[in-house]
Design a protein that fits this description.
The complex is a heterodimer. Helix content of chain A is about 0%, strand content about 60%. By secondary structure, chain A is mostly beta strands. In chain A, the strands form 2 sheets. In chain A, strands 2, 4, 5, 9, 10 and 11 form a 6-stranded mixed sheet that branches. In chain A, strands 1-3-8-7-6 form a 5-stranded antiparallel sheet, with no helix packed on it. The radius of gyration of chain A is 13 Å and the shape is globular. Chain B is an all-beta fold. The chains are: A mainly beta, B mainly beta. Chains A and B meet through β4, β5 and β9 of A and β5, β9 and β10 of B.
């Protein structure tokens, strides 16, 4: 069964610190892997999209990595800000263009 | 450039009723996809429309249906509402389809009582 697992479920860090969120998937073959940020009560916002041939992609302080061999991806947030408090969702698109969503990591950045 | 607009933002319905949600995509985008988000199940894909045709469908019962108009605006209908249909319904638009970057709307919060 195609699955996307994220860890940790929740995370609390201090403002200014870095953190890394994990995503493991069993979707095969896959078309692309995406990371979204979702603020409470709002729609998700795309951070990165990577195909299987890409290893890393950055968007400002967000850097996503992908290891297609081990089927793992990570999202690294540098110098966290209070506005980074949100849920981060890993999404894998399979070869038939269906999106499989992870359950998300809820990040809280404290002053 | 205006973003994806969903209406209404909030809705309260009674069990057994039906509801129609609307989504206006970003100008020029031809693909609209719909998702249900609940605390228990997370985000789940409902269906995708491209140029007025349903191109992809998730695993939801037939009570959930949709359509897309010639101007790419899309509607989603849920008939015979159940308590479990209470959720945030999100739509996303993209230029060429779901394999390209998708932009989400703010969602419609549906509560079934």
């Amino acid at each position: 069964k195609n699955q996307v697992e994220q860890s940790p479920q929740s995370l609390i860090i201090l403002e200014g610190k870095n953190c890394t969120l994990q995503c493991n998937y069993t979707v095969s073959p896959f078309s692309n892997l995406r990371w979204y940020k979702q603020d409470t009560g709002r729609g998700p916002v795309s951070l990165t999209i990577m195909t299987f041939s890409e290893n890393t992609k950055s968007n400002g302080r967000y850097t996503a990595t992908l290891d297609a061999d081990t089927k793992q991806s990570s999202l690294h947030i540098t110098a966290s800000q209070l506005s980074d408090s949100a849920s981060y969702i890993c999404v894998v698109m399979d070869s038939s263009y269906k999106l499989i969503f992870g359950s998300g990591t809820r990040l809280l950045v404290r002053p | 450039k205006a973003g994806v607009t969903q209406t209404p933002r909030y809705l309260i319905k009674t069990r057994g009723q039906q509801v129609t949600l609307s989504c206006s995509p970003i100008s020029g985008h031809r693909s609209v996809s719909w998702y249900q988000q609940t605390p228990g199940q997370g985000l789940q894909f409902l269906f995708e429309y491209f140029s007025e045709t349903q191109r992809n469908k998730g695993n939801f019962p037939g009570r959930f249906s949709g359509r897309q108009f010639s101007n790419s605006r899309s509607e989603m209908n849920v008939s015979t509402l159940e308590l479990g249909d209470s959720a945030l319904y999100l739509c996303a638009s993209s230029y060429q389809g779901m394999n390209t970057e998708a932009f989400f709307g703010q969602g419609t919060r549906l509560t079934v009582v």
